[in-house]
Design brief:
CATH architecture of one domain: Single Sheet
Radius of gyration: 20 Å
Strand order of the largest sheet: 2-1-5-3-4
Number of helices: 7
Strand content: 15-25%
Order of helices and strands: EEHEEEHHEHEEHEHEEEH
Distance between the termini: 53 Å
CATH superfamily of one domain: ADC-like domains
Largest sheet: 5 strands, mixed
Helix content: 10-25%
CATH topology of one domain: N-terminal domain of TfIIb
Length: about 270
């Protein structure tokens, strides 16, 4: 069923069940997101995508709010921009975002966020956890977006090896009973790494190069190929720097993988050296 609604100054059409973010994206209206991903169920935790809907007292999350006929949506009002700026300031004042995705850093600049307005020393301080030769957990960069939890759970792997533990300021991502990663239910698929927007979860190869100042993504080439470990047909994107594979990802829009891989596809590329 097709309906009409207004987004900013334009009358647009949508299908019943579409979200505000879906409709806005189709019509070229950009709404920033952090906890949303195309291959994950919206969890409504970051509140960066909030928009103003006529008749609604609170701002609503565009990533999950279904559209309604004759809805009037403002995506860039003063109230919306103020809310987004505050969210970004709180995030940037509590975690280290130096390895965040460029889109997030661009949003901080776009909305004029000034994290320094908040108390100095508010940034999390957590030791880097490396319990294997595959990836590193650096939770002082974690913004609790829940993406890793969703990727480990119903949306992809169905392993449920990680979840959010604690409450309030003590909330953090953890394995069951805070056990060491090799002793947990983790199967090392790395799908949590693929969706992490801040570098809190990083392949060891990338982490080591970053620490040494040798990580240069602008000089990396990306070659798409098909994983040879089995017959499923997963697509792999090989990130190559200085003639060496440094990381493997998978395209989120691939109809087989949808950005997800198993341990062999994501980490089993050393034989290419």
């Amino acid at each position: 069923m097709t309906i009409e609604l207004r987004i900013d100054d334009a009358i647009v059409t949508a299908e019943q069940g579409d979200t505000i973010r879906d409709v806005a994206a189709r019509h070229g209206v950009e709404i920033p997101t952090l906890c949303w991903a195309a291959n994950l169920t919206p969890v409504n935790v970051c509140r960066l995508c909030v928009v103003e809907v006529e008749g609604s007292r609170p701002l609503v999350p565009a990533c999950s709010r279904p559209v309604e006929a004759d809805m009037v949506v403002s995506t860039n009002s003063h109230r919306v921009r103020t809310s987004r700026r505050m969210v970004l300031e709180l995030l940037a004042s509590s975690v280290d975002l130096d390895r965040a995705e460029p889109e997030l850093l661009d949003q901080i600049e776009e909305y004029g966020a000034r994290p320094e307005r908040f108390a100095a020393g508010a940034t999390k301080h957590a030791p880097v956890k490396q319990q294997d030769e595959l990836y590193v957990r650096d939770y002082q960069r974690c913004v609790l977006c829940y993406k890793c939890v969703e990727a480990c759970g119903d949306d992809a792997q169905h392993t449920f090896a990680i979840s959010v533990a604690g409450r309030g300021f003590d909330a953090h991502i953890s394995t069951e009973f805070d056990t060491a990663l090799p002793d947990s239910a983790c199967v090392y698929c790395g799908n949590c790494i693929a969706v992490c927007p801040t570098g809190a979860l990083t392949p060891l190869t990338e982490f080591v190069r970053r620490e040494a100042g040798e990580w240069r993504p602008d000089q990396q080439s990306v070659t798409r190929t098909v994983c040879a470990f089995c017959g499923v047909g997963c697509n792999l994107d090989l990130h190559v720097q200085d003639g060496e594979v440094v990381k493997v990802t998978s395209p989120a829009d691939h109809d087989i993988t949808q950005g997800n891989l198993c341990i062999k596809g994501r980490f089993g590329w050393q034989h290419l050296r």
